[in-house]
Amino acid sequence: xxxxxxxxxxxxxxxxxxxxxxxxxxxxxxxxxxxxxxxxxxxxxxxxxxxxxxxxxxxxxxxxxxxxxxxxxxxxxxxxxxxxxxxxxxxxxxxxxxxxxxxxxxxxxxxxxxxxxxxxxxxxxxxxxxxxxxxxxxxxxxxxxxxxxxxxxxxxxxxxxxxxxxxxxxxxxxxxxxxxxxxxxxxxxxxxxxxxxxxxxxxxxxxxx
Length: 209
Ligand code: Z5A
Fold this sequence. Notes:
There is one protein chain. By secondary structure, the protein is α/β, with parallel strands linked by helices. The protein starts with a strand and ends in a 5-residue tail after the last helix. The protein has a five-stranded parallel beta sheet, with helices on both faces. It contains eight helices and five strands. Helix 2 (about 40-50) packs antiparallel against helix 3 and helix 4 packs across helix 7. The protein has a single domain (about 1-205), classed as 3-Layer(aba) Sandwich (Rossmann fold). It is globular, with a radius of gyration of 16 Å. The chain binds ligand Z5A. Ligand Z5A binds near residues 11, 15, 66 and 141.
């Protein structure tokens, strides 16, 4: 089972991933936890280029770096895990490319859909948990977390975008969820982490107890 967690900045994806991972361990479910960008060796090298505020990437160059990361990630990590019967829990994946580079940066979303197909060999998640909340709340949460944890501002290239950029991304995610209702589950990210975990487990359905 291939599960992705998506959403705007500060929606709570990492927090939910932590809780889900703990729950999978408790239930003895074999799983691999991973993320994009940076879930494989190539991605770890690309991540600073993609997120560093000081890198001035052309939009198309940015797109192909995300796609290169994804192609390698699928080949090295995701497909092998699925083939040996493990669950894969991935923080962001192909829907982020359509939301950010498509709705956010204005690239053609149907072209991006095809490029994602090509990069992944047609591998789409079985279930996508979309954590939805007003973008202002998400950005406030992300900023507060960065301040508290003293995180480097060098990873803030996307956070630094204007509010309208993030609003287009939220809209993009929601449109995708409406287009593929069998794959997506939209979760209210304003709920507490514990309530969100319960919602997520319900949305996943077939986990052993
Ligand atoms: N990107 C792209 O453009 N194209 C692509 O194809 C891909 C990605 C794959 C990756 O950044 C960036 O790359 C991303 C999109 C772009 N944009 N940015 N930035 P990243 O991996 O560094 O970060 P992220 O994926 O965006 O995660 P995030 O926004 O930094 O955070 P999060 O994981 O969603 O949230 P969190 O860290 O779990 O929580 C944030 C804070 O809120 C924290 O203090 C929590 O304690 C708090 N929190 C969490 N949940 C709750 C609830 N339920 N209630 C209250 N407070 C909460």
